[in-house]
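hey so u asked for the seq, here:
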Amino acid sequence: MSWTFEVTPVDHPDAAQLLREYLDEIASRYYERQVGEEELDDLLEKNHSRDMVPPTGAFLLAWRDGVLAGCAGLRVMTPEITELKRVFLRRSERGKGGASLLVAAAEDVARGLGATTIRLDTRSDLVEARALYTRLGYDEVEPFNDDPYAHYYFAKPLVQALSDRV
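ran it, structure tokens below
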């Protein structure tokens, strides 16, 4: 099984498709019903990802064995802090090790954007996401925004202490 990751313009058709799938799943799960197409269009506009382009961020696409599998977005919040957003794998690609690799690839891109810390927020119903981030070394932190849909906040340093490198 081979995973590859590439920074891609957020308006690329593959990126747009995965963002739509991501928001469809997230919103439907939250509302406990399938969201309609108009509702999804509205959510995409309200939760746009247009700033996930260098130098204000980045958007990654993931492929498994050449098949489009998922995405992750980054937003530069300050010169030292980048926020991880829109982490998503298609259902058919889950459980194959891609989520950890996708987050690691996003962390590498965040380092390239100058970040020394990466942070994220997530909802209480996304238990799989919380477990993933904890497993990958993210620590729970105090809230850093007032997003009404965010219930948990995590952060991870992206640089090792000098004593850890020796």
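Helices lie at 13-31, 37-46, 98-112, 127-135, 162-165. The longest strand covers residues 67-76.
lmk if thats what u needed
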